[in-house]
Design a protein that fits this description.
The structure holds 2 protein chains of 2 kinds. Chain A is an alpha/beta fold. In chain B, the strands form 3 sheets. Chain B has a 6-stranded parallel β-sheet, with helices on both faces. Chain B has a 4-stranded mixed β-sheet with strand order 8-5-6-9. The longest helix of chain B has 21 residues, at about 120-140. The chains are: A alpha/beta, B alpha/beta. The complex binds iron/sulfur cluster.
Chain lengths: ~750, ~190
Amino acid sequence: MSSKSRDAKAAEIRRLLAEEGASVAENTRGFNEGRYESVARLDDYDELKAEARAIKEDAIERLPELIEEVRESVEANGGTVYLADDAADANQYIAEVVKDRDADTVVKSKSMTSEEIAVNDHLEARGTEVWETDLGEFVLQVADEAPSHIVAPAIHKSREGIAELFNAHFDVAEPLETAEELTQFAREYLGERIEEAEVGMTGANFVAAESGTMALVTSEGNARKTIQATDTQVAVAGVEKLIPTVSDLQPFVELIGRSGTGQDITSYVSLFTPPVESPTVDFADDETPLSEVGSDDREFHLVLIDNGRTAMREDDQLRETLYCIRCSACANSCANFQSVGGHAFGGETYSGGIATGWEAGVEGLDTAAEFNDLCTGCSRCVNQCPVNIDIPWINTVVRDRINRGDGGAGGESAEFDWLVEGLTPDEEPGGVSLQKRFFGNFETVAKVGSALAPASNWLADRAPSRWAMERILGIDRRRELPAFESQTLVEWFEARGGSRIAPTAADREAVLYPDLYTNHVQVKRGKAAIRVLEALGVSVRVPEMASSGRAPLSQGMIATAERHAEEVAPPLLDHIEAGRDVVVVEPSDLAMFEREYGKLLDGERHRALADGSYEVLEYVYGLLEHGEEVESLAAGEGEAVAYHSHCQQRTLDLEPYTTAVLDAADYDVITSDVECCGMAGSFGYKAEYYDLSMDVGEQLRDQFTAPETSDRTVVASGTSCLEQLDSLLLGRESRHPVELLDPKQ
Amino acid sequence: MSADVAEEFAASLRDLGVSWSRTTREGFEETVADAVEPPAVGTELPFEGVSLAETDVTADPTPARLDAATTGVTAAAFAIADYGSVVLRPDESGTEPVSLYPERHVAVLAASDLVADMPAAFDRLAEAVERERGGGAESGGGTEGGDGTGGDAIIATRPSATADMGALVTGAHGPKTVHVIVLEDE
Ligand code: SF4
């Protein structure tokens, strides 16, 4: 990305923050809160998710078979199945159905798949009126805008905005004002459209192949009316919506509403095996009793759309995307999405976390490239997905492909290649942007930085270098850069003569993994960690080691990350083999070992490394549980602290260990519950994302400057979080929690 | 139904803001009169000893009457205690439009048709779909073997609602209020 396109992107993000940010934030955060509460009411949440996942895995595996099965069952019911290769094919078929039915008006119930194929435009161009009956979609139709969210398409609009829109667009006697009035107006207006319509178009959340039963999940009741009131129904669904049987719907029915908007269940879950047998109603008819009206004219067409899905199924990395049930939990739990919404964080059709996978599959890499970088890999969505899709991984894979393909920054400023060339011993081809290569090779940057510190820090802080870094690498000038220590942790440890506790005198031996930041920047927390472990009787080693590969991975440089994993794993596994525990200070590196190495190493080595590694306070917690005395550590004496855990640490459910240990050491702890600090590794440094990063951070600032927290000592586990907190809470120095426990503090 | 399940159903309905009343066959007509807001229409109820005939509810209305009605009364095939949901069976007699178009929906449920949870509900639903299919095959196509519902079902929970207009509003496209009448078995 050139500095010009970075500027343009930053300006667009600022615009969306200003215009849509407030509404999006309020709504998504509301859904998100609701989800946490609603899933907490399920006794068997994890089992339901596992069951849902298994059903989707099986269904996608057997997809060709299910397509044949559903064709037979729908035809046996008297309906038709059309398998469309792509959007054009589907649109042509639908237009024919509409033409055969001589329909002037088509009413639609919300369906992202029909957005994907842009069927409205196609039909309207042929003279058919098309009306969206979902009220959110209706608002967008009137405003001539695209959805900003996959479940609640118009959440970026405020009530005032909608009132203004309706009052200007429709001939209303009294200006509409309240949500009640707006809803009533839309209901009546659309009620008439529904009555006029001959054809009703719906999506399908699920289709049971065995019986041809489709499930529709709505809260407004518009899907019911769309089907009830028209005698020709067209259901448009991606082929991935097929599941084997009606019984398989059960876990999804329990999960989908909760995951999406935080309702235990939406108002209506309709199971229709069309053509339906409800009588068709002509409200003018005052003669025929309902039971005699009949439903003989009803026709049903199931249009199953491929549009790239078969290719996704054959793609080992993108296949998981097809398990998605479009609940939007990933979007609602995403801090960046909560700030800018789907008009920034989305492509042609889909928005939010999983949108990259969908857009890469149905539109192509170029479309996915437009917003893929908004996934910071924080992994907050991972546990929220009801089908356990590793969404950040899909985003990383797509990023890697973008880097390698045309969607990357190939050809950009070759004149500056020299700048990172020496710093970038990576495995990546030239298409990767300089910015990505710089951050991806942060290990080398850190080594050089430490070697030349403090001169490197001084130089990096000078205005001309900041200007050059911004222009060439896109590092925002407003960010304070990490200051490299001239003596690394490894060097300090060596100079000190190794562990103060001899292995022979210790019950346990641990290897403290010298991650990039702890080794070069946050050396203080590394020293504290060593002293804490020793105080609890552990003999410690701090060997020189390669970095985990987190930095290149987050830039989508998978080959480089894999090389790191191959370098890091053998020595650590040797230690584990020898009975030593691996202790990790930086949560994102621990997450690498626990999660991403699963994709980069073979299963056996990954499991051994994951099982043998601990986050530092998780480890301290374990030691205390096994009889070590908390009195050996610095006591809090009631000191009030405000703690922000780290996204990836929370995904791994490690936060409770830190708070438990701080509690035990007599600290009075309040924790933040915001999704993310907004920094997420390199993300917050990038000029194009600086404003977004700060906007996300505002949540955290608000929480830590509230009356009950404003005097507290600020602690955070992740390096990026610490840096973000320092810039959010000017003048209040933040620390890693292990520093509070340091007996030498 | 067991007392526990009934209690859970009542609690779920309370949380959803859905009103309900309990009655016997004798008390049915009076209970219906209390539950509906006139003008009311309904579909004939499949429960023995219970009928809309003696009430102010117009059974089997014409579409025009339905359009003018404030309340629609239909049977619920069964209900799900832990969700507070009633399951409606769109059928040839018009359960779907009667439960959908009027502002108020009154669902009549036999107490014995209350199931505890979603897995139990899906056992029933899958069975109904299966029955339709099995029946269809035996009679050489069509749905003669079934119950005229094609196995269709609506799991309806709380009134219809939308948050698309900037605040939560009930009565988006469907009913604004829902009332459940539980018919005790003697
Ligand atoms: S990826 Fe998972 S969380 Fe995101 S929309 Fe799909 S199912 Fe929901």
